[in-house]
Structures are given as C-alpha cells and as structure tokens.
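[Automated response] Your request has been received and processed.

Submitted sequence:
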Amino acid sequence: MAKKVAEQAALPKGYTPDLKKVYKEQIIDKLTKEFGYKTIMQVPKLVKITLNMGVGDATQDKKLVDDAQQQLSEITGQKAVITASKMDISNFKLRKGQAIGAKVTLRGVKMYEFLERLIRISLPRIRDFNGIATKLDGKGNYTLGIKEQIIFPEIDIEKIAKIMGLEITFVTTANTDAEAYALLREFGLPFKKNN
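Generated structure:
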C-alpha cells in the first residue's frame, strides 16, 4: 500500500494520461454508436497489458534471464518478475522451477503511458512495418509478438547481449473479438488494412 501511495505522489495532482482522456471523451461514444450499447457499463475497457519475454537459451546461460528482467523493467518503468518453468522437459534440458523468462503486468496510468509509447514511438521503428495482424483470441484479448526488443527507445543497443523477442497481451472486458478489435483500433493500434 505504501508503495502505491508513493507512486501516486510522484505524479502531478489530477494527472490523466492522454489515451485515458481519449477513451472517456471519444472512444466510449464511438463504440456505443457502433455496437448499440444501452449503458456506459457495457462499453469494453482495457484492463491490463502484460509483457512477457521467454528466454529459451536460459538453460545454458542464466544471465540472459537477468538481462530480460532488466530490459522489461526499463521498457515499462515497472519492476519485472522472473518466471519459472512449471515442469521438467528433458528434451530441452529444463527442470521444474528453473528461471526461463520475465514478465510485467501494467494497469492504470502506467498501462496507458506504455500503450501511447508503443503506438507512437516503438511500432513505427519496426523495419518495413505495414501494420499488425488482426487475429484475436476469441475471448476479446489480443497478443502482439515483437521480434526484437530494440524497437523500444529505452533499450541501449550497445549494452544488450542478445536480441530477444517478447509478447504483449492486451486484456479487455470485451465479450467478442469484434468489440475488442474496435476498442484497440480506436486507441490507435495500427492493424493491417488488408486482413
């Protein structure tokens, strides 16, 4: 609780991220018209964004997991946690409980701030970028795969030992993929036009 209070104290009083304002002032109205919601409570919301970096080579080099944890913390501004294997897999030389990656879950202000940086700064830095795939999971959530962590300006390319990919999952309250797609599209995620 003390950590949360200290975190809120660092922000100016009454601060609201730009994308949260856009959601309240524009997206709610657009989605209500598009899907015919009868109450504001039916309009889907973005609940959390989870970033996950799996490190397949962690069985040979344990330092890679620490690197992944540090890089995710730099990208999000929130401390990443190390994830461990849930079972033994002898073919991959993997033991139960062995560190194999890192993850971060963002909510509230940090979630909106990260989403804005992702849309406006990081995704446009991808070479030959022509939009992101439109396939959702059937339950109103969307996972975006990033092949190189160096698209984020927080990562110093001179200091990284290995190029690693990560997954970014957007969790919404939408009941259908169409509603989740419309919500994320209105936030500004650059979906491919020809899908």
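Summary generated for your ticket: The chain has five helices and five strands. The two ends are 45 Å apart (CA to CA).
If you did not submit this request, please reply to this message.
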